Amino acid sequence: MPIEGLSADRLYHACDPSQLDFQDTGELSDLEAVLGQDRAMEAIRFGVGMTHDGYNLYLAGAQGLDKTRALRSVLDPIARQAEVPPDWCYVNNFETPHRPRALRLPAGRGQQLRRDMEHLLEDLLNAIPAIFRSEEYRTRAQEISEDFQEREERAFRELGEEAKEKGVALLRTPLGYTLAPLRDGEPISQEDFDQLPPDEQRRIKRVIDEINARLKQIIRRIPAWKKESARRFKELNEEFTRETVEQLIAELLSTYAELPEVIAYLEAVRRDVSENINDFRAHEEEEPVKLHELLSSPQFRRYQVNVVIDNARSEGAPIEVEANPTYINLIGRIEHIAQMGTLQTDFTLIKGGALHRANGGYLILDVRHLLTHSFAYEALKRVLRAKQIRIESLERMLSLVSTISLEPEPIPLEVKVVLKGDRLLHYLLQTYDPEFGLLFKVLADFSEEIDRSPEATRLYARLIATLVRRERLRPFERDAVARVIEQGARQLEDGEKASLHMAGLTDLLREADYWAGQGASDGCRLEHVEQAIEARVRRLDQLRERLQEEILRDTILIDTQGTRIAQVNGLSVIQLGDFAFGRPSRITATVRLGEGKLIDIERETRLGGPIHSKGVLILSSYLGHRYASDRPLSLSASLVFEQSYGMVEGDSASAAELCALLSALAELPLRQSLAVTGSVNQLGQIQAIGAVNEKVEGFFDICKARGLDGEHGVLIPAANVKHLMLREELREAARQGLFHVYPVSSIDEVMALLTGLEPGQADAEGKYPAGTVSARIQARLDELNRLRVSFARAARSANDDDGD
Amino acid sequence: MMMGTDATGTSPPIRRVLVALDTVSRRPELLEPAVALAALLGAELDALFVEDETLLRAAGLRSSREIVLVSATERKTSAAEMARALRRLAAALQAQIEAMAAEAGIIHRFEIVRGRCHRAVYEARASSDVIVTGRLDVAWPPHTPIRVLRLLLAASGAAARALDVTVGLAGRYRADVELVVPQTQEAELGETLAALAQRLRAQGLDLHLRRCLSEDCLAMLAADPLAGRLVILPADMEGIGSAEALRDWIDALKCPLVLVR
């Protein structure tokens, strides 16, 4: 039974506009649900609902599937209803300043505490100097000063007077005191001293020694006096400032009474202010006090509050999307400022990261970005394991620098992390990272397609209407919507499916809208969608045109007429980013006497990929199974993609290669007006291949350019018929009988079409009817066998002669 | 701020302020008001460091010892070593004065002489409009500004300038003024007192009048408090008619002393 070409209507799975009961998308309501992602949505709802450790999510699927929107459709309402997480602040740790304290406050109270502390400091800076300026304080302070000064002054004065009475002067030197004998109220010289009677000299020396000893005693007492004076000053300061400080802080203590951590912090502030009251006093002479400058000055920065997370304006739980998940963007960082050539830092320079912002809610990350930033993935896992965010400087972690740094108190973490990425990365992480499975237990696997059932088509139309409104595009007419659905199927390479690739779909809608705008149309019509598709192809297909041109100019040799032995038009596809196109390739075979070895020249030259090599090896297996199951396969054959200068991969040309091989073996001419695509198995069955539309159109374009005569066509696997979404020009040629697409299921059907001969079925004895393809093949194999046997005998007798 | 007049008429402008320093009077308590005065009056600052000859003589004794103040330790010294120590002290003072003068924007000179400080001050009366000196055996406690200005106002040619200096310093330090007036001259100075009170009131400052007998003036000026007190004297007043008399006053007051010519 000869194989018939497919009718034009089977070459394209059109979307019947009658399924769409609207005139344009303006009539359709928005599609709230996520179309075609039931499995993924169930997983998301499950993952979000699971509050146990490790139930973080991985959204798997290609880019453009709008995974984030699908996720947000579940997350947003849940997050809105959730409790607003607390604020987090870093404050000074007065006992160990390099370990700043983390304070947890109810949402909105962090900024309040910051302002309250600023006001407190402002009040202290105003009130304390005023206390020190008061007459009452000055009088009391003066009493202490004078006590000390008078005691010291009196001690030296009395000693000086006593010394003077005994004829010795107490003199002040640059470093201390010295003593000298006096005469007439003036120190005497050595000469004058030498002239004194020896008794007088001894007396003076005795007096000097005695005064010296007393002087030392006085000097030794000075530190104790100073200490006592300082103690009295401190007591005085405390007496005068205690009330003010306590009163000011008491107001805050009552404001934050229900927050014990804050209370403990305020108590620490009170102690620190009391112990460092002179810091405030140092500014008593400055009028007016420049409060703004003082608040940020080094000695008062320690009273600041660094609000790392402010949820004052938050509604519900946060949903944080970190587009640049570097280590520091995730974990936070400790900044430094250069001072006098060194890098300094303090708790006010701690900056939170995405994990801080997402704490109490959800963090969405692109897994590819996460993995491409050094240490980010490891840091994320460490944080999730520990359930707390510990800000560690990367430089310190790697021991790259040894500047002064901080060890901020870790902040407890409660977050649901959602990773987005493709399936491959998920499987790789599952395979190679034992921790991944423990931390990301929920896979939400996004589908890229849905069946084009009537119901799904109607929902898809609503999805298009939703996207049109969201993008503020012109309404799409019914025909235009149908064409968009068809183009999605074409992109998917499956006429029975609709694409869920939202990015591609939205791009097509936008581009059609552009062309509608160019045509001053109020709505998007079929022609605008067609224009958008053609324009996109036009933008991308320069290389395709060049290759086609080289074929038409016979630089690349492709026959499209007549017959040739051992030569077949195979079809390959070239993928250039988003754009793919098919091109015919000449495949040739040679056969000679041998021992069953089939040489794949592509593989031998390392230009063939493993799948291609597998396909070629299947051919020899097919030959042996079909024609030489009870005898040796006495041939050697070579196969090659002619004029191929790059890698050949895939097995979609294996059927064509087998045809070339069989033709070479049986010396049967093959029709060059036909091209073949399809993979073949050991049993000679033709199997489905990818990119069938591009391959068919690639051969059609060449044939059309040379002139269609009704002989041209492409043989495709019957299993690929459902994938056909061929363009209108080709369908029209098929309608006119100028071009044919033949669905084939076996290599026999292929050979029948290419040779015009019956393939032939073996009888009970394994013999094929004369004149059939198989009979000729078997005859040639038998001949090769005979030759091989005769060669073997000749060789053996030659050996025997040599032995004699 | 230039201050050239008082209520009674005009007084010649003050062009030179001298600060006289030695090992005893090398305090910031003296330098600070001297620089402030020069800046206030638009005058030049002459700094005079006196290497005390008695100190060098005492250090020249074979048995001379120095008791170091910060450690209460005793060490042998000599005239040469003392001279070197004085030069180091002078250099440090010069650097300090240079920095202060630059900050205040005033012209200054620095000179070193050997002798006795009170004699150098006494001799400088003829050439300097204002002299700042004093003997402070003990430093003032920290954060002690000048809080009390004591002015001995006697009928003299320098009275008008002394008033100018007093009003300027009182404004600078926001200090109250205690005016010590010999009882015998109170009537004669009535108009001047009223003018001074008015000028101080204009700055929101108080004037306290204290009458004294001539022989009690020094005791009244030297009365407590020790810290935060500055005394202003007309340079031509009776009682400091010799260098030794001036030394007695300096020793007795134990505070910064401003002599106005």
Into which percent range does the helicity of residues of chain B fall?
25-40%
Distance N to C terminus of chain B: 19 Å
What radius of gyration of chain A results from the CA coordinates?
A: 47 Å
Largest binding interface between chains: A-B, 44 and 41 residues
Number of strands of chain A: 30
Distance between the first and last residues' Cα of chain A: 61 Å
By DSSP (H or I, 4+ residues per run), the number of helices of chain B equals 8
Mean pLDDT of chain A: 90
**Number of contiguous helices of chain A:** 29
Considering DSSP H and I runs of 4 or more, what fraction of the residues of chain A is helical?
40-55%
SSE layout and pairings?
The complex is a heterodimer of chains A (804) and B (261).
Chain A lengths: L37 H12 L7 E4 L6 H15 L5 E5 L9 E5 L3 H25 L1 H31 L2 E5 L3 E8 L2 E2 L2 H6 L2 H58 L4 H16 L1 H5 L9 H5 L2 H4 L3 E5 L9 E4 L4 H5 L1 E2 L2 E3 L2 E3 L5 E2 L2 H5 L3 E5 H6 L3 H11 L1 E2 L4 H4 L13 E2 L3 E6 L1 H10 L1 H6 L2 E4 L3 E3 L2 H17 L7 H15 L4 E3 L2 H17 L7 H15 L1 H11 L10 E3 L1 E10 L2 E15 L3 E4 H4 L5 H18 L7 E7 L12 H13 L2 E3 L2 E3 L2 E2 L5 E2 L4 H15 L5 E6 L10 H8 L3 E6 L2 H9 L17 H31 L1
Parallel strand pairs in A: 1-16, 1-17, 8-13, 13-16, 21-26, 23-24, 26-29, 29-30
Antiparallel strand pairs in A: 2-3, 2-7, 4-5, 5-6, 9-12, 10-11, 14-15, 18-19, 20-25, 21-22, 22-24, 27-28
Chain B lengths: L4 E2 L2 E2 L5 E6 L6 H14 L2 E9 H7 L5 E4 L5 E3 L2 H26 L3 E8 L1 H8 L5 E5 L13 E5 L6 H15 L2 E7 L7 H13 L4 E6 L4 H5 L7 E6 L8 H11 L2 E5 L1
Helix pairs in contact in B: 1-3, 1-5, 2-3, 4-8, 5-6
Q: In short, what is this structure?
A:
By secondary structure, chain A is of the alpha/beta class. Chain A is elongated, with a radius of gyration of 47 Å.
